[in-house]
């Protein structure tokens, strides 16, 4: 089972054999650090939105309800679905979802198991950088060799009115029309206000990474080497897998990393861009940073 630390899964009901989800686009206040909150846009009270977990062959209906002050849509990033369900209303036969209205995206999961995302595809320049995105995972029915399976969404934000180099408690508006970001998140939180990734010695650990932001993020694992096992939701054949300890996750991409927990300790797992592992350019480690922690 895939776990998204700090982010819930999206629940579903089953109606006539179809998995039915409800995704609500709405203003969301997300606490990045204790007392430091950003006023963004998300889904079901969360930035990033809740993770959608399905299986190959499932029929799904995802009702998207718009509680935003403007029209929106949802694109199912990397999924092979009908054109009318793809969620780009400017060029496809799919509607804009106006405030107070909803649209039912209905399709069958045709892709093989893998890591994907969903995100807005209307007024993208504003809406994505207000937080409108989440994980979409097609799970396999057989993962006996994977002991723990984590998903991490990479995002970046500019909180307005917070002087550089300072951390003051408060609720801050976002500026989505700048590339001068001051907070960098894994699953909507900044280090140290984020959950670690627990492991046990000898376990095989998969970490799935997704990025819908502006910047590329070279994600680096300390103390271990990992195999790059999938890209954009597509499995890489065993003979072509690269042994790495750093992978650049550019915008719009997902990667699956697999490593054996064979070196006990507390190990950093973080973006290697120096500005991206600080909180508003303060000195302590922060931002896009987690720890791998061995359990006894």
UniProtKB/TrEMBL annotation:
Domain Plastocyanin-like positions: 32-140, 182-280
GO molecular function: copper ion binding; oxidoreductase activity
Matches recorded under InterPro entries: Cu-oxidase-like_N, Cu-oxidase_C, Cu-oxidase_fam, Cupredoxin
Pfam families referenced in this protein's UniProt entry, alphabetically: Cu-oxidase_2, Cu-oxidase_3
Record-linked PANTHER family: MULTI-COPPER OXIDASE
Name of protein: Copper oxidase
Species in which this protein is naturally found: Paenibacillus xylanilyticus
């Amino acid at each position: 089972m895939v776990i998204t630390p700090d982010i819930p899964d999206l629940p579903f009901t089953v109606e006539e054999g179809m998995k039915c989800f409800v995704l609500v686009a709405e203003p969301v206040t997300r606490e990045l650090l204790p007392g430091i909150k950003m006023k963004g846009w998300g889904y079901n009270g969360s930035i990033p939105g809740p993770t959608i977990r399905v299986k190959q062959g499932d029929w799904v209906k995802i009702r998207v309800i718009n509680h935003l002050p403007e029209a929106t849509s949802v694109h199912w990033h990397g999924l092979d679905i009908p054109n009318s369900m793809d969620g780009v209303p400017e060029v496809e036969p799919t509607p804009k979802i106006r405030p107070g209205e909803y649209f039912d995206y209905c399709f069958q999961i045709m892709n093989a198991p893998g890591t994907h995302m969903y995100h807005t595809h209307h007024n993208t320049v504003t809406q994505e950088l207000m937080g409108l995105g989440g994980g979409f995972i097609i799970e396999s029915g057989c993962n006996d060799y994977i002991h723990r399976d984590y998903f991490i969404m990479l995002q970046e934000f500019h909180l307005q009115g917070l002087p550089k180099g300072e951390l003051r408690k408060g609720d801050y508006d976002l500026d989505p029309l700048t590339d001068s970001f001051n907070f960098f998140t894994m699953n909507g939180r900044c280090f140290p206000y984020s959950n670690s990734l627990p492991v046990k010695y000898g376990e095989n650990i998969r970490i799935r990474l997704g990025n819908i932001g502006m910047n590329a993020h070279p994600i680096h694992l300390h103390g271990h080497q990992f195999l790059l096992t999938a890209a954009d939701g597509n499995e890489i054949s065993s003979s072509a897998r690269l042994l790495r300890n750093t992978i650049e996750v550019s915008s719009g991409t997902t990667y699956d990393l697999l490593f054996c927990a064979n070196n006990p300790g507390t190990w950093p797992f973080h973006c290697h861009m120096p500005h991206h592992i600080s909180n508003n350019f303060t000195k302590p480690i922060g931002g896009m940073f987690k720890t791998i922690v061995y359990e006894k």
